[in-house]
Amino acid sequence: MKMTLIAGSNRKAATSTILLRYVESLLKAQSLSVTFVDLQELPLPFFTPDNQELHPNVQHLLDTVADADGLVLATPEYHGSVSGVLKNALDYISAGQVSGKSVLSVSSAGGPMGVSSLLHLQSIVRNLHGVNCPEWISIGYGSNSFGPDGAPLAGGMRGRIEGAVGNFVELTRMLAIGAAAAAK
């Protein structure tokens, strides 16, 4: 299975990106193919439907999303919503590229939790006809410290992340099996 992870912050050393790197390590430990798209390193022009020629960075994003069986989207929470950088990237993506694919939402907030950004992200995924994983990952103030291996240091957080990633992988498998059966 192929997974595409999109880090939706343009801040260097963003906790949402560090958290997503940990998710990446969990997926790779299961011998899954993982493509990591870091929007801080892959800047995209502002989306406009008028632009018919796609910037090479946009084309790379679209190709990796289309090629994936599952997506993991990570965002910092800004003013109760997703980052503008991630929203801009998602505006380029069409429903045909996400339809029927599992999506795990991940957030890091400066306050207690990033629930508002996760709700907004899941609404966007529904509008793209993706299948939201019933779990999400949210870390907030006090739980955003990471060890040298990138794993969260907060008690219980590591187990909750591993559980959510495990359920996401299982959902992705089930949807891939269903899609393969429907194609026959």
Automatic annotation (TrEMBL):
InterPro entries: Flavoprotein-like_sf (IPR029039), FMN_Rdtase-like_dom (IPR005025), NAD(P)H-dep_reductase (IPR050712). Its EC number is 1.-.-.-. Gene3D superfamilies: 3.40.50.360. Signal peptide: none annotated. GO terms for molecular function: oxidoreductase activity. Keywords: Oxidoreductase. Residues 1-141 form the NADPH-dependent FMN reductase-like domain. Belongs to the azoreductase type 2 family. This is NADPH-dependent FMN reductase. It comes from Paenibacillus solisilvae.
